[in-house]
Write a structure and sequence with these properties.
Layout (H helix, E strand, L loop, with lengths): L15 E8 L14 H16 L10 E5 L9 H9 L5 E5 L5 H14 L5 E8 L6 E3 L2 E2 L2 H4 L2 H6 L7 H15 L4 H16 L12 H6 L2 E3 L2 E2 L9 E9 H7 L4 E10 L16 H12 L8 E3 L5 H10 L8 H7 L15 H5 L9 H11 L13 E8 L9 E8 L3
Parallel strand pairs: 2-3, 2-4, 11-12
Antiparallel strand pairs: 1-9, 1-10, 4-9, 5-6, 7-8, 10-13, 12-13
Helix pairs in contact: 7-11, 7-12
């Protein structure tokens, strides 16, 4: 792991804190489940976050509002329209359109606005209803990623039907260069489902065995059914304030200790990049340097985990092990909440559900805050004081991720 200059500098460490969060129940649109709009999910998630923080929406007049891009029912002026729907008048609007990095990117933007004195607090919201989206075919939503640009130039015509097929190509390249077994990746899926069984909010809670994982049908070789994230409808929100204000709002603030962001990352040549390396190899060292922590100081990792392979690559690129040794690392460590390397402690997206590609990134952040506040009943990491949270957004052609954001959170500033 090479040293890089801290992005934002040490002066940002501990200057803002998250004081509330909300996550609606998720829906797979089974018979009898309510069919809600994106705006309804946003309002619901915002209400839950405000209740947890003991705040009201009037506390955000003249403050900040962050809105994550939704692929369903959005307009050109959607963030301002969301303020109208919620009935608040913010002085600053923050837009999240970096896919699974949206939640963490808005946290960074809000933190800088707060530190600059433009606002003192921000309500950050996101929701999506991908299961209600018109579709060309099952699993192929009518999203910008699927309707223009390099997807239809180089992938769609050859049968690449979405993220599973795209990531299968990346995983196959990794397996060509490095050693990883289905059993090692399966351990991630099995552990995620175990954590989901302890989380009432997870969409799939019935545990499965490693053998059941191996027996699940192959969808896009080498990715199996139990490697794939379930898509859900739902919404999430969190509230970030200045550290000073946080002390008056809650006795359990969760501080942002460090962050790093990398976009349009290439490892090596832009003509033929190394697709086994993600932007976490740059953003994670920056976050850790800003926070002043090392790997041994981190009590848990909440990766963006739509596929077990992405969790493994995250571990490698954060520097918890060398490139190519991620499979061995998974095999040698206990990934459960009470193990030596707690990861995806709420079941992650892999078993908890992904509320649209742009909003799945709220989940690692919300779970990290939940753990550091000591509110993860039944799956609480013992003595959790510092956590690592990841955002991972976009699947560009021929590379594993368009945006990679790393965040270090702590229960103390």
């Amino acid at each position: 792991m090479h040293s890089l200059p801290a992005q934002g500098g040490e002066f940002m460490r501990g200057k803002v804190a998250i004081v509330g969060y909300g996550r609606t129940p998720y829906s797979r649109l089974k018979p009898g489940e309510p069919v809600l709009t994106v705006d309804e999910y946003i309002a619901w998630a915002a209400e839950l976050a405000l209740e947890r923080a003991g705040m009201s929406k009037s506390d955000f007049d003249g403050q900040g509002l962050g809105v994550s891009h939704a692929e369903v029912a959005h307009t050109v002026n959607w963030s301002a329209a969301t303020a109208e729907n919620l009935g608040i008048s913010p002085n600053a609007l923050i837009r999240g359109d970096q896919g699974g990095c949206s939640a963490t990117s808005m946290l960074i933007r809000a933190a800088t606005l707060i530190e600059a004195g433009v606002i003192d607090r921000a309500l950050i919201v996101g929701a999506d209803t991908p299961l209600s989206m018109p579709s060309l075919a099952p699993g192929l939503p009518l999203s910008p990623e699927r309707t223009r640009g390099v997807f239809w130039d180089f992938q769609g015509p050859f049968g690449v039907m979405g993220a599973t097929a795209q990531f299968a190509l990346i995983l196959r390249r990794y397996m060509h260069e490095h050693q990883v077994t289905p059993e090692q990746l399966g351990k991630v899926a099995v552990t995620n489902r175990y954590h989901a069984s302890l989380n009432p909010g997870a969409i799939y809670r019935k545990p499965f065995t490693l053998q059941e994982y191996l027996d699940s049908r192959m969808l896009s070789d080498p990715i199996r059914l139990f490697d794939c994230v379930p898509i859900v409808n739902g919404g999430l929100a969190y509230i970030v304030t200045s550290a000073e204000s946080a002390k008056a709002i809650t006795d359990r603030p969760v501080y942002v200790l460090g962050f790093g962001e990398t976009n349009n990352f290439y490892s090596g040549s832009r003509v033929f990049p190394d697709v086994t390396v993600t932007g976490f190899s740059e953003s994670a060292p920056r976050a850790m340097e800003m926070a002043g922590v090392g790997h041994d100081d981190i009590d848990f990792l909440q990766p963006y985990d739509d596929y077990p392979f992405i969790s493994m690559k995250t571990i490698e690129d954060w520097g918890f092990c060398k490139k190519g040794e991620g499979g061995k690392f998974l095999e040698e460590h206990d990934l459960r909440f009470d193990g030596d390397f707690p990861m995806s402690t709420d079941g992650g997206q892999l078993s908890g559900g992904q509320p649209g590609g742009a909003n799945g990134g709220f989940m690692p952040l919300v779970e990290g805050v939940t753990q550091l506040r000591g509110e993860a009943e039944g799956r609480q990491v013992p003595n959790a004081g510092i956590g690592a949270v990841c955002g991972f957004g976009g699947i560009p052609y021929g590379r594993p991720g368009r945006s990679c954001i790393s965040v270090i959170l702590g229960s103390e500033a």
